[in-house]
Every structure is written in C-alpha cells, then in structure tokens.
Amino acid sequence: xxxxxxxxxxxxxxxxxxxxFAIKIEAQPSPGKFVARxxxxxxTPNKVLFNNNTGEDQIIxxxxxxxxxxxxxxxxxxxxxxxxxxKR
Length: 88
What we know:
It is a single chain. This protein is an all-beta fold and 88 residues long. The chain has no helices and seven strands. Helices cover 0% and strands 52% of the residues. The strands form two sheets. Strands 1, 4, 5 and 7 form a four-stranded antiparallel β-sheet that branches.
C-alpha cells in the first residue's frame, strides 16, 4: 500500500448456511478488523482496515475468516460464499 493511503472495506455480501458463523476481515499488520455475525448480510461498512501513515510503502496481508461462534463443532458448507469491494 502506498504511503498516505487507506484501505477501506466498502461493501460486503456474505452467506453461510449456518447462522453460527461470523465473517472476520483483517488487514495485517494493522489492528483494523471488521466482524459481521448472523450467517448472512449485504453490508456497506465503509470500515478503514489500514491507514498507511508510516511515510513508507507497506505490504498488507488481507485475512478473511469464517468464525464459528457456537459452542458446538460445525463445518462450513461448500456453497458458503462472500464477496467484498475494497477501495483505496
């Protein structure tokens, strides 16, 4: 990421067959993260995941996770999906 720029999660659409799953999006090495629960959503969070104010270009690792929020073990379905739009 170029110096002085931000990485913003603009739109997120996700669908899990099990409502126990939440989606978590992180931009490492930043503390910025976004979590959405409930198994499905069509959201416009406009969440800043990374703000490069270091004065140097930075390499970002975008991590997308499905998190099981229930107390029981469960698995993702092959049809579970997500789509997101990022902007700088």
